[in-house]
Design a protein that fits this description.
With 465 residues, the protein is α+β, with helices and mostly antiparallel strands. Helix content is 50%, strand content 16%. The strands form two sheets. The chain has an eight-stranded mixed beta sheet with strand order 2-3-1-5-4-9-10-11, sandwiched between helices. Strands 6-7-8 form a three-stranded antiparallel beta sheet. A hairpin with a 5-residue loop joins β2 and β3.
């Protein structure tokens, strides 16, 4: 948490405060995170039990839902929920006010829990934990694997949020101790750590919005110029450069797939591939028509022009995810005697197999092999191929929906306006979020627009539900 170690007296004071948090001091040491251990430094001067506890961070976290959901607390009883409910004024990030930083982070944590449907996650985790305790669970390996994966994913979300809560409480505690010890350097470091948490909280808010089926995929971003000739082609090139800058800011890999240059300037159409985790989840907020108002650099009369460009975003599902996932519970397997000439057992045993995929009604039959097992394997291969074709058609339909914004690039269809003259502003017409610095937006600073759109979309979905 900090770049140096606490003094011995401050370390002793920290342990004292921790032990006052709960009746069980060992529990307090266990639940206080890695920041404490790193600040205390060598533990040779501590009592043996305390030293051992601080050396083994693996014991600080439990896999049980009850332990994972226990709220961390400062020595004077502050929890994340109580901080969020105090109504402390949230000032700009540049202000060195710990209450402001703490309140902002606490509000973010509260919002993250709402977006993750925290109550449902906790209840679902308890249910899965009960299932995992069943002695006959692994009699069905497919079901057991599915339950284990879901439990692991939910526990990962719980642990991530709880660790963030614990980190906030620890920074507040360290700041208070630093002031009691008149340790200006530690106070400055703790204040800086709170400000860093406030910035990373916004990222976590955004990540909590990305729970769609394909949100974790990479994607293609396609930009097409609207009517307006060179003006719109130049605007399309500006939009494409904006997305390339945005993707590179986020650490994504950008590859130009296709580019059709304009006759004089800009592009008629271009496609880039954006490789990285949750690229589609973020970029899907940009689908639609983008409008630019400016003094034209191509007009000798220096008149104001309006230009349009359309953006489409397509997820890259990849080979693995493009295959239809067949569930055993969706299959009806029928056995019958094979017909026609065959070997010794071909017509005397029920070796032929017909597999019916109940949800789609697609069937596959095989009776040519000598054994029932071989016929089943062949029938499953045929069924998989047929369902894969169905999946490809479904993806094509989905991609068509993502690219429909390219059809009408004109007034009345825009999602965002970029005004460079007579005033300077970028406004999202879906959320009414706006900024007065269009240069930063065109240089790739899009995260606030994306966050506002995704959060408003989630709110609308929750209201309709």
């Amino acid at each position: 948490m900090a770049s140096r170690l606490l003094t011995r007296s401050t370390a002793a004071r920290l342990l004292s405060h921790l032990c006052r948090r709960k009746p069980d001091p060992i529990h307090c040491l266990l639940t206080h995170g890695a920041a404490s251990a790193s600040l205390l430094g060598p533990t040779c001067d501590l009592p043996a039990a305390d030293s051992a506890l601080l050396r083994y961070p693996a014991r600080w976290f439990s896999s049980s839902p009850a332990a994972a959901t226990e709220a961390p607390m400062t020595a004077d009883g502050l929890t994340v929920d109580s901080i969020a409910s105090k109504g402390w004024t949230i000032l700009p990030e540049a202000e060195s006010d710990w209450r402001s930083h703490a309140a902002a982070v606490a509000q973010s944590i509260k919002l993250i829990k709402e977006r993750l449907k925290w109550g449902w996650i906790l209840e679902r985790t308890k249910q899965l934990a009960v299932v995992l305790e069943r002695p006959d669970l692994w009699d069905d390996p497919v079901f057991a694997g599915r339950v284990s994966r879901e439990h692991g994913e939910l526990m990962g979300k719980i642990k991530s949020v709880n660790q963030f809560e614990q980190e906030l409480i620890e920074h507040i505690e360290m700041l208070r101790l630093a002031r009691e010890e008149n340790d200006n350097e530690l106070e400055s470091e703790s204040m800086s750590a709170l400000a860093d948490m406030r910035r990373s909280a916004k990222e976590k808010e955004l990540n909590a919005l990305l729970s769609g089926d394909n949100d974790s995929c990479s994607c293609f971003i396609e930009v097409q110029a609207g009517a307006g000739g060179t003006e719109s082609m130049d605007w399309a090139a500006m939009i494409m450069n904006m997305y390339r800058s945005w993707a590179q800011r986020r650490g994504y890999t950008v590859t130009v797939v296709e580019e059709m240059p304009g006759e004089i300037a800009g592009i008629k159409r271009a496609t880039i591939k954006v490789d990285g985790e949750y690229a589609f989840g973020y970029a899907k907020a940009e689908v639609g028509v983008h409008r630019l108002v400016r003094i034209s650099p191509f007009d000798s009369g220096k008149r104001r022009h309006t230009s349009f460009a359309a953006v489409a975003v397509i997820p890259i599902l990849g080979d693995a995810s493009s295959r239809y996932q067949i569930k055993e519970t969706d299959l009806r397997i029928e056995r019958f005697r094979s017909g026609g000439p065959g070997g010794q057992h071909a017509n005397t045993t029920e070796s032929a197999i017909r597999i019916v995929h109940v949800p789609t009604g697609i069937t596959a039959t095989c009776q040519n092999e000598r054994s029932q097992h071989m016929n089943k394997a062949s029938a499953m291969a045929v069924l998989q191929s047929r369902l894969d074709q169905l999946e490809i058609a479904r993806q094509a339909q989905m991609n068509a929906e993502h690219t429909q914004s390219l059809n009408e690039i004109s007034w009345g269809n825009q999602i965002r306006s970029y005004v460079l003259h007579p005033y300077r502003m970028v406004k999202d017409l879906r959320t009414n979020y706006e900024v007065s610095d269009p240069d930063s937006v065109l240089e790739g600073d899009l995260d606030d627009f994306i966050l506002n759109y995704l959060s408003s979309s989630l709110d609308e979905a929750n209201v309709s539900a």
